[in-house]
Amino acid sequence: MSTGFKPMEMAFALAEQAALTGEVPVGAVITLEGRLVASERNRMRALRDPTAHAEMLAIRSALDKIGSGRLAQCDLYVTLEPCTMCAAAISHVRLRRLYYGAEDAKGGAVDNGVRFFAQPTCHHAPEVIGGLSGARAGEMLRAFFAGRR
User: Fold this and answer.
1) What is the pLDDT of residue 79?
2) pLDDT, tens digit (0-9, with 9 covering 90-100), for 72-128
């Protein structure tokens, strides 16, 4: 990885930007051989699009930049365990590795819920490393939702 580039830190900065705009604080970064390919944050409200999760937007951007329908040598860093929609997209683009922060007992689909990558119908399962700065990500989400109540 290039000196000073910390993908998970970038994902947290993006999550903080999302929260400031009223979006659920989730940020996502895609790398290739340690270099930044794409970075996004949740923008569902801004785009009026329920599919505008940070992961989906980052995947779309990375595919466009790489000029391919696959991201086989890329890694995804995201602050929250991906949902079923995002897990399916991760599988379809063949991401090599998934790093995520907080587990999502309610909406997560990697280590919780449907456990998408463990299903026999899943064609590709990335290597998964969960819990990276999980407490920090969880606290960011708790603070965001506490401010909404």
Assistant:
1) 98
2) 999 999 999 999 999 999 999 999 999 999 999 999 999 999 999 999 999 999 999
Among all chains, which residue has been given the structure tokens 């992961």?
55
Lookup: tokens for 108: 């997560």
Report pLDDT for 149: 66
Q: Is 127 a catalytic residue?
A: no
pTM above 0.90, yes or no: yes
Residues 23/43/116/30 CA torsion (nearest 10 deg): -110
- CA dist 76 → 7, 20, 22, 33, 41 (Å): 9, 23, 24, 12, 13
- Distance from C-alpha of 83 to C-alpha of 92, rounded to nearest angstrom: 14
From 110, 100, 101, select the one nearest 142 (Cα to Cα): 101
The DSSP code for 83 is -
Which residues, listed in sequence order, are joined to residue 128 by a DSSP beta bridge?
98
- According to DSSP, the residues that pair with 41 across neighbouring strands are 27
Contacts of 70 (CB under 8 A, 6+ apart): 93, 94
Q: Which one is catalytic: 9, 16, 40, 55? A: 55
Is residue 3 over pLDDT 70? no
Q: Which residue has the tokens 């270099």?
A: 35
